[in-house]
Design a protein that fits this description.
Number of strands: 0
Strand content: under 5%
Order of helices and strands: HHHHHHHHHHHHHHHHHHHHH
Radius of gyration: 22 Å
Structural class: mainly alpha
Number of helices: 21
Helix content: over 70%
């Protein structure tokens, strides 16, 4: 029994006839090739978010070798170490998700989806040119803001274009495509970080390549419609129905016209939902649950993902070999979500998340004890597979439980806790690595994952098969 006495927060009343009809028809829409094409396009754009997040760990050895940053620091909050670079990344992500999530709700998914990435690109290019640790951290922080806005916009976008019966698979495919960036950045780091092509340090090339490739967004945006549900919630009903008719026509369906839809009676009147409503019932319990979840899950995911090369180095493996092993492990990122898609919509999200976290504990502690390269790689692959399974499940989960009017802002609010957690996790992991070694790092991850399992099992609401914004 969930502590939340709602079915994902839609009991405040029936939506106005236009939005309610759009939600009903989106839910009835078949999973056509066109819908999947939109998911793929959004996911390709999301590749740059993942690229940016994971280059944090993969270029860390290069930053250390360049003398800009050190692996560990004497002070806990030392700003001359890799932990500070990780913290700057996630501090920017926190600002983007917590303070700027409202942008996608106010101006639209498509517009913010496009322009958030431009900010990231500009900041990344400038960061790659820095020669001081202060400048490096400042521009890393600003790049993180752009990525923070981007990620919550993509999640809301996909949630509103895909029927509930296939939403789990859509997010699994989304994560699989986005995570293709991980082996790419791992390979580039393995190839470039130990070198200095044309006299430019390899880590700078890794950053610049990602920033240059992100310009593909200007092409992708031309093929993406605005969310019809968002349009309807903002009074642009005719435009919403035109896009919805296009979506249905691509699936071979003959849809009723806007006039017929708008003639439908209004069942109930509903007050406008604002950001302040998130801190009152029935949404408060959801907000608290997902805040706790995000604070803890970040330790499991980024405590490993951002530190793989460094953890391997601490086990006595050379920088070059650690990057090579990390590159091999990285192939699990795009493959694992595709495998997980087979059960993505067969179980409740909370049980998928809880199961993945239990497996993270098991494989994490095993990794800490191993020294043989082959077993380290195998355990790293399994640990990565569990992390990505948890990732796709919660990205879907924390957007579909909130109403369209504030979906991006609400999911950004709770998701920002993982950015806040990851900001400090950089310092905490660095400290644990110094004081207790790799085993201490995974002990920390174990505690965090146990909290997630308990929270999901006891308090997670059921969402499988439920439409958006409907009673």
């Amino acid at each position: 029994m969930s502590v939340v006495g709602i079915d994902t927060g839609f009991e405040l009343g029936a939506a106005p006839s236009g939005p309610d009809e759009i939600s009903r028809r989106l839910e009835a829409m078949p999973g056509t090739a066109y819908v999947w094409r939109l998911v793929i396009l959004l996911s390709l754009a999301g590749c740059f978010e993942i690229y940016d997040l994971f280059l944090t760990g993969y270029i860390a050895p290069g930053l250390s070798r360049s003398g800009l940053l050190s692996t560990t620091t004497t002070a806990f909050f030392g700003f001359s170490g890799i932990g500070a670079f990780v913290a700057a990344t996630f501090a920017g992500l926190f600002v983007g998700t917590f303070f700027l999530g409202f942008l996608a709700d106010r101006f639209g998914r498509r517009v913010i989806f496009t322009y958030a990435l431009l900010g990231y690109t500009a900041a990344s290019v400038i960061m790659a040119c820095q020669t001081s640790s202060e400048g490096l951290l400042l521009w890393r922080f600003l790049a993180g803001i752009g990525i923070g806005v981007e990620v919550i916009t993509i999640d809301a976008y996909i949630t509103e274009l895909v029927p509930s019966r296939m939403r789990g698979r859509a997010f699994a495919v989304n994560q699989s495509i986005m995570f293709i960036a991980v082996p790419v950045v791992a390979f580039l780091a393995w190839w470039l970080v130990p070198r200095a092509p044309y006299g430019v340090e390899g880590w700078r090339w890794v950053v610049l390549i990602g920033a240059a490739a992100s310009m593909i967004i200007w092409v992708l945006r031309l093929f993406l419609p605005e969310s019809p549900l968002w349009l309807a919630r903002h009074g642009r009903t005719e435009e919403a129905f035109r896009i919805l008719a296009t979506l249905e026509a691509k699936g071979g369906a003959t849809a009723p016209g806007p006039s017929a839809s708008l003639a439908r009676p209004v069942a109930q009147t509903v007050a406008r939902i604002g950001f302040a409503d998130l801190f009152r019932p029935p949404y408060l319990s959801l907000v608290v649950l997902f805040m706790v979840f995000n604070l803890c899950q970040a330790f499991g995911f980024y405590g490993f993902a951002n530190w793989v090369p460094t953890l391997l180095v601490e086990k006595g493996i050379t920088v070059t070999k650690s990057l090579q092993y990390s590159f091999i492990v990285a192939f699990a990122y795009p493959i694992a979500p595709l495998l997980a898609a087979s059960f993505a919509d067969k179980f409740e999200r909370r049980w998928i998340i809880a199961g993945a976290c239990i497996a993270i504990i098991v494989f994490g502690m095993t990794f800490a004890q191993l020294t043989e390269p082959g077993l380290l790689i195998l355990c790293g692959v399994l640990l990565t597979a569990c992390n990505t399974t948890m990732s796709y499940a919660y990205h879907a989960y924390q957007t579909e439980v909130f109403p369209t009017q504030i979906r991006a802002q609400a999911s950004g609010l709770v998701y920002s806790m993982s950015r806040l957690s990851a900001t400090f996790s950089g310092f905490i992991v660095a400290y644990m690595l110094k004081e207790a070694g790799v085993t201490g790092v995974f002990g920390l991850i174990t505690v965090a994952m146990l909290i997630v399992v308990i929270a999901m099992a006891l308090f997670g609401p059921n969402v499988r098969g439920k439409a958006l914004d409907t009673v």
